[in-house]
């Protein structure tokens, strides 16, 4: 297993982490059902621990709170050696107040998560989704409160645009609130949008990126092809999320299969190993509905892609620069470039 520190903290985390979104028995989102009980979850967590994973991620909204309960029980014997991350923001109950990121909601949600997880503290507490109805200072005040009370060790966010995250970090510095240490974002060969604005921001701010859905919800596992666009029992058949360009996706899967063949590996391992080559990534969350999928994905930590393979995958999926990104290079005067040693990167 590879390890790194999370952002500018000294917290050491595994570069592969375990996502418990599939834990629980029942509906996760409309039309998508989980079927992992405590016994199976215990096996999956044990396998992850044996592989060296120490970062485990969940959220209060996953399968009606079952995910936190099951993960907490599975990790209870190992609490002192693991980093538990959970999230707040999506609806967890029927009341109007059972959603969002208000001060009241965050404090209540954190206390409820602590009970479900069966722990005295949460290592990493993350804002799951922006709340357009709540002022940012209200949300940040609540997160700081949790840190000051010792209920939360570190805080992060997920799915925020760079401009809003930058605004929050500035407010945290201004109010002397606890600072974000991480950003949990979608990133895959079929979803490289964060390279435009998010990556430059987090690098400047000293935050670590935790990746969710590195296989684009299973698409990059290799089972989706032009010949089998709707494989049996595949989750994307009922929940096409995150959105992808299918034509590009089929091309990428073909290339993944070629590279995987050269390494006696799987397409999924290649897709995850490619993400691990990116220096701005701290950890990649592995989510699985079957233990054999988890075992396969764990092999990515041992797979070393050569420079040519990385270049091929990069070239196949590099997103076009968005304005004003494509104007930035024009700010370097040619005469000045010749006169001095200058590296814009």
The H-and-E topology, N to C, reads as EEEEEHEHEHEHEHEHEHHEHHH
Arrangement of strands in the largest sheet: 3-6-7-8-9-10-11-12
Q: Please state the oligomeric state of the protein chains shown.
A: single chain
Number of domain modules? 1
Please state the average pLDDT score.
94
Gyration radius, rounded: 20 Å
Largest sheet: 8 strands, parallel, barrel
* Through-space gap between termini: 29 Å
* The CATH topology: TIM Barrel
Assign the CATH architecture.
Alpha-Beta Barrel
Q: What would CATH call the homologous superfamily?
A: NADP-dependent oxidoreductase domain
Approximately what portion of the residues adopt beta-strand conformation?
15-25%
Q: What does the model show?
A:
The protein is of the alpha/beta class and 345 residues long. It has a single domain, classed as NADP-dependent oxidoreductase domain (TIM Barrel). 37% of the residues lie in helices and 18% in strands. The chain is built from 11 helices and 12 strands. It has helices at 38-50, 66-75, 103-117, 136-148, 162-175, 198-205, 246-263, 267-276, 291-298, 307-317, 334-339; strands at residues 3-5, 12-14, 16-19, 24-29, 32-36, 55-57, 83-88, 122-127, 152-158, 180-186, 208-212, 281-287. The chain has an 8-stranded parallel barrel with strand order 3-6-7-8-9-10-11-12, surrounded by 6 helices. Strands 1-2 form a two-stranded antiparallel ribbon. α7 (246-263) crosses α8. The model has no long low-confidence stretch (mean pLDDT 94).
